[in-house]
Amino acid sequence: MEAADRYDAAAQLAERLYRAGRITDLEGFLTQVQAREHQMATGLPGGIGLPHARSEYVRETSIAVGIAAYGHSIDFGASDGPATLVLLIATPAASFSQHLEVLATIARSLFRPSFRDSLRRANDAEVISELINSSLVFFDH
Q1: Residue 141 domain-assigned?
Q2: Active-site residue numbers?
């Protein structure tokens, strides 16, 4: 992924969710993601961007993953520098507890260097999906 900034990165990932039918209104959802980004930066240590939003435009909890192209990075406001791995978390507006649980579970996984490295080395969407799903395996959808 090559993104001009964190908003562009979130827009690229949200577009994937929209095309997959998981988001009903792309612009409405992006407005909510941007509002969340204005509240507080979503960068995590280790080169991670974790934009997220609960929204009435989300049909089902979804995660889209982007890996920065070689030589590129995206500033998500983390204290240790820009992100090379971005995960957009989208949850339905009514699912406050689910949103927090998914966010916390993914964040815990991302603090493990081996998990981050596995995502960065993944060569296709299926491998990335398996890695993400394995981190959420105990989570009761």
Answers
A1: no
A2: 52
Q: Which pLDDT band, with edges at 50, 70 and 90, does 136 fall under?
A: confident
DSSP alpha helix (H) spans, 75-141? 96-110, 113-121, 125-135
Q: pLDDT confidence of 141, banded at 50, 70, 90? A: very low
Asked if residue 55 lies in contact with residue 90, where contact means CB atoms within 8 angstroms, the answer is yes
pLDDT band at 138 (very low <50, low <70, confident <90, very high): low
Whether 1 is covered by a domain: the verdict is: no
Q: Which domain holds residue 46?
A: 6-135
Q: Specify the number of domains making up the chain.
A: 1
Structure tokens at 115: 């998990």
Q: Two tokens at 10?
A: 């979130």
Q: Is the pLDDT assigned to residue 51 strictly greater than 80?
A: yes
The answer to whether the beta carbons of residues 82 and 119 sit under 8 Å apart is no
Could you tell me how far CA 118 lies from the centroid of its own chain? 16
